[in-house]
Amino acid sequence: MTAPSPEPRIEDVATHGQFVPMSRFYDAMTWILTLGRERKLRDRTVALARVATGERVLEVGCGTGSLALAAKAVAGSAGEVFGIDPDGQMIAAARKKAARKKADVHFESGAGEKLRFADGEFDRVLCSLVLHHLPPDLKVAVLAEIRRVLKPGGIFLAVDFGPGGHSLVGHLGFARHIHGHKERPVHGHEDSNEVSELLRGAGFADIESGATGFGGLRYWRGKVS
Fold first, then answer.
1. What is the spatial distance between Cα 41 and Cα 212, in angstroms, rounded to a whole number?
2. What is the pTM of this model?
């Protein structure tokens, strides 16, 4: 395996999606809103993505890095994990967290609609609580990019608010809408059939959807043929 390149500069990246500058409170808010089950949710997400030892994993919209770090714990030293987020403050927090845990995870600024990675680089791509931030055209672009960077046989796993997912988590929604969510309803949820159709349109096969076991959160999983 080639040596990783130096970590890119931390800066915000332009995106048509919506994000909130709240890195200081993100982890505490997540813990509260999952009623202390945040770690179990991350482990469940990694398990649903079927991450295995030695795999290359990308998280799109990684926030402060908890899910990417959970994926690294499974992928192990033989695997390689990357996390991207358009918010430079989130990336800075993620790098600090990785340093504290002495975990070799690569966090960098980036937008899902324009991934810097080559075709077929990853075995798994994860996307947690991101889709509901994206307008319809951007969802199509992001899913196309995710499909592009996955290897044949690779798996994409998304977790987001499903219909009826307006629980405590859904209502508070990490205060996501304080940064310009004007054109979409506050605390939107994803239609299960619609997301499945978007995955199918992006070229994914063997599409599955179901409950995560955490409130109104659902998962969608697709495979590259």
1. 8
2. 0.84
